[in-house]
Amino acid sequence: MVAWKGLLHAYREWLPITERTPMVTLCEGNTPLIPAPNLSAKLGLDIHLKFEGLNPTGSFKDRGMVLAVAKAVEDGSRAVICASTGNTSASAAAYAARLGLRSIVLIPDGKIAYGKLAQAMMYGAEIVPVQGNFDQALDLVRSISQEHPITLVNSVNPFRIEGQKTAAFEVCEQLGDAPDYLALPVGNAGNITAYYKGFSEYRAAGHVNFVPKMLGFEAEGAAAIVRGEPIPEPETLATAIRIGNPASWNGAVQAAQESGGVIDSVTDDEILAAYKLLAREEGVFCEPASAASLAGLIKRRASGVLLPGARVVCVLTGNGLKDSDIAIQASALELHSIPATQEAVLQMILQTKGE
Ligand code: F0G
């Protein structure tokens, strides 16, 4: 078996890499495409889960961040900055640590999952909680990076999109062809833009015959693209996609229109139901925002717009362990301790079984 050397190495010819680019890696990418037989049977589709939560910092952000931070170093930068609902900040902080850069992260005060905050802290980021939402924090870092020698590593940095497009290549390689549909959550809309770019490039190079129909799902309380206007105060329990004015709005619309797909929305209840289904039916624990992809698939299948038996890849963007608070709330289990005796344990499990 050949050891995996990370994305910059694996996809060098597809990326803007020069002799001066540091070939850094935390062994990001090469994530599994997990078949989902139980959900497939339930929905009458052929579903595969691209589990991006198995990247080194637990989300798809590592794909774009490895390139964005490497290019920052190549350009002589000593610091990176981003606004984040959590995952971008964790990833930026990890690669900055690895390459010896300062990382400054602006987060919406009180609205990021604790696991993500813990990561940014551990990797040594300078964390700035802002009394505002993601969109306001993004406006701030955009203007600060224009006026100061600090590299912006949000997905408005084109190297982020370049790195993230590699996920589309992997999906095609793992399936042996492009899927009929690709379903994914939409927040700032960088990822759907990146997947579409990746599939289009692979198709242009003759590696696959077609580009999948791109199905992007926003949370209903933050569904700016679906509504056709920015949402000043977006709300959803899926904090990762609590974004009211997506920076790559046009990229998302283009991906959906040109591929024959759609941008649609799902409610928080639909997200929670899909989140539980993934864990209980398939043994895959993703974060709530990630489950918007399956929630959207269920919604569209129910309304009869997906062809039966179609091959679908659902992108699960982040790891469930990042947001254990929501997992525990969603499970609604009350745990009562019992004496440490065989009798007490047996009584408990026999009782549970009988319920
Ligand atoms: N899923 C997860 C787990 C995310 O963290 C994000 C975005 C998305 C989906 C949406 O991706 O923005 O490319 O449309 N998180 C960003 C962050 C905003 O700051 O971590 P997108």
UniProtKB/TrEMBL annotation:
Source organism, top-level taxon: Bacteria
Location of the Rhodanese domain: 80-123
Coiled-coil annotation: which residues? none
Xref: Pfam families: PALP
The broad enzyme category this protein falls into is lyase
InterPro entries with a match to the protein in the record: Rhodanese-like_dom (IPR001763), Ser/Thr_Dehydratase (IPR050147), Ser/Thr_deHydtase_PyrdxlP-BS (IPR000634), Thr_synthase-like (IPR004450), Thr_Synthase_bac/arc (IPR026260), TrpB-like_PALP (IPR001926), TrpB-like_PALP_sf (IPR036052)
SUPFAM superfamilies attached to this UniProt entry: Tryptophan synthase beta subunit-like PLP-dependent enzymes (SSF53686)
Keyword line: Amino-acid biosynthesis, Lyase, Pyridoxal phosphate, Threonine biosynthesis
Molecular function via GO: threonine synthase activity
List the catalytic activities from the record: O-phospho-L-homoserine + H2O = L-threonine + phosphate
Q: Which CDD domains match?
A: Thr-synth_1 (cd01563)
E.C. numbers: 4.2.3.1
Pathway the protein takes part in: Amino-acid biosynthesis; L-threonine biosynthesis; L-threonine from L-aspartate: step 5/5
Q: What family classification does the UniProt entry report for this protein?
A: Belongs to the threonine synthase family.
Cite the NCBIfam families for this sequence: thrC
The entry's protein name is Threonine synthase
